[in-house]
C-alpha cells in the first residue's frame, strides 16, 4: 500500500518536470503507474492532496538524509542541491495554486536546518542560547527568502553559488548575535 502511494508521488514529480501543475490529471498519474483510478482515489482525494503528500515526503526526506551539519553552507547545500535537481518541478508548484503548501514546507525545512545548525553551534562552542530564537528566525527567513527569490526569477541563477556568497557575507554574524554582540562599523549616535 505505501509502495503504491510512493510510486504515485514519484510519478507526480516526474510529470511535474514535464508540465505545469495545473495540467496534471489523475489520468496522467494512473497511466504512468499502470493502476486504475480507484487505486489513486484510495490513496489521495485529488491532485492537490497528492501534491501536498509529495511536498511533505520530499521535505521529510531532505531533513532525514541531511541531519549532519557543519558550517552554514554545509547546512544549506543539501536543500539547495535538492531544489536544483527538481528545478522545473518546483517552479511549476511555485507558480501554481498549490504555492501556499510549498511555502509552508519550505519554511518548515528552512527552520529545521537553521535550528539544527544553531543547536550544534551552541553545543560545540558553549555559546549562550538566550538569543537563539531571534537568530533562528533571521536565518530561516534569509534561507527561505533566497529560495523564493530564486523561484521568482525562474531559477535563472546558480542558487548554490549565491548561497555560498551569502554565507561568506554573514560569517560570524550568527555567533555575534548569539553572544549578544553588535558589529558597529558606523558611529554611534548615543
UniProtKB/TrEMBL annotation:
DNA-binding region: 25-44
Cell cycle recorded as keyword: no
Record keywords, A-Z: DNA-binding
Coiled-coil spans in chain: none
Residue stretches making up the HTH tetR-type domain: 2-62
Stored InterPro entries: Homeodomain-like_sf, HTH-type_Tx_Regulator, HTH_TetR, TetR_C_Firmicutes
GO molecular function: DNA binding
Keyword Metal-binding (UniProt): no
Name recorded for this polypeptide: TetR/AcrR family transcriptional regulator
Organism: Candidatus Blautia merdavium
Amino acid at each position: 500500500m505505501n509502495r503504491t502511494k510512493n510510486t504515485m508521488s514519484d510519478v507526480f514529480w516526474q510529470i511535474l518536470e514535464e508540465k505545469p501543475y495545473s495540467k496534471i490529471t489523475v489520468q496522467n498519474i494512473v497511466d504512468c503507474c499502470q493502476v486504475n483510478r480507484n487505486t489513486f482515489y484510495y490513496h489521495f482525494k485529488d491532485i492537490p492532496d497528492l501534491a501536498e503528500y509529495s511536498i511533505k515526503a520530499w521535505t521529510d526526506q531532505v531533513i532525514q538524509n541531511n541531519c549532519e551539519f557543519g558550517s552554514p553552507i554545509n547546512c544549506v547545500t543539501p536543500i539547495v542541491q535538492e531544489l536544483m535537481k527538481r528545478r522545473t518541478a518546483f517552479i511549476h508548484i511555485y507558480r501554481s495554486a498549490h504555492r501556499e503548501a510549498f511555502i509552508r514546507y519550505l519554511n518548515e525545512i528552512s527552520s529545521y536546518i537553521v535550528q539544527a545548525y544553531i543547536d550544534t553551534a551552541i553545543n560545540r562552542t558553549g555559546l549562550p542560547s538566550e538569543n537563539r530564537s531571534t537568530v533562528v528566525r533571521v536565518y530561516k527567513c534569509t534561507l527561505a527568502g533566497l529560495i523564493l527569490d530564486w523561484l521568482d526569477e525562474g531559477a535563472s541563477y546558480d542558487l548554490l553559488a549565491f548561497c555560498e556568497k551569502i554565507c561568506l557575507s554573514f560569517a560570524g554574524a550568527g555567533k555575534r548575535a548569539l553572544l549578544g554582540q553588535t558589529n558597529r562599523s558606523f558611529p554611534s549616535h548615543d
